[in-house]
Amino acid sequence: MIDLDLAGQQDDRVDSDELKTRAQALRAAGRTPKQIARELGVTRAVVGPLVRGVAVERPGHTAPADLPLVGCWINSGWSDGLIIEDRPVDWVDADGSSGGTAGLTSVMVARRDGDGISLAGFLVDTHCLGAKNALPPTTLDEQDMPFFVADFFSAYSDPPMRAPIDLARNLVFGAVDFARRLGFEPHRDYHSAVGHLGAWQPTGRITFGREGRPFFVQGPRDNATRVMRTLDRSVGAGNYEFLVVADV
Predict the structure, then answer these.
(1) Whole-angstrom distance, CA of residue 82 vs CA of residue 40
(2) Domain extent at residue 199
(3) Is the same domain home to 83 and 4?
(4) Are residues 96 and 174 in the same domain?
(5) Which class for 97: exposed (0-12), middle (13-18), buried (19 or more C-beta within 10 A)?
(6) What is the residue-wise DSSP string for 75-114?
(7) Separation CA 89–CA 137 (nearest Å)
(8) Which residues are within 8 A (CB) of 107 and not within 5 positions of it... i.e. 6 or more apart?
(9) Tens-digit pLDDT profile for residues 116-166
(10) Does 192 lie in the same domain as 177?
(11) How many distinct structural domains can be found in the chain?
């Protein structure tokens, strides 16, 4: 028997997700919050939180994905726990070792913007939560780029590796898609940074999760109770793994 209250909550969640998707698409196309509110039949107070951080396409401005690609970097150990179908030969991982950061992958993309270099970065949890953080586009002199990239990857024991942009797209877009199906939205700055990746066509080559199963590892800013309740709703208790900090 269907729990009518639960069914109603699920319908509300679907409606809310659809509203957010439509609002963000309109904002990315250059609509103002006032125009979006009028088009969707809601108030501006509702629209504001939905579109915060979304990159806006403006006439006369070159889209980030159309800027010449300078380079793409990724951390060693990015493939830990992932299942990859028909793995391309250039999807290289140095040694398959995560160095204690299992499931956490950093990606940085650099594109030439006039006389400078525009960089955007992502921290993605490929096992569960998707885009946990993002660095909106930052423009600097080309001579400063190596230092900026090194600093971005400074938390890892090994230096970053050059990677093809297709791998970056599959990891970031794929992890976000996986997390959304589990009930988790990307970090608010994701929408500003994602234009540097270009287009991606799902479904990709990667099966996310640890060996195909969601695996939540609690970080210092994660609300473990909230995350696990969300996983209980989306995949069911017993259908995911977790590692959380014990209460003392």
Answers:
(1) 39
(2) 62-209
(3) no
(4) yes
(5) middle
(6) -TTTTTT-EETT--TT---SSS--TT-TTEEEEEEEEEET
(7) 29
(8) 72, 73, 74, 121, 122, 124, 163, 168, 171, 172
(9) 999 999 999 999 999 999 999 999 999 999 999 999 999 998 999 999 999
(10) yes
(11) 2
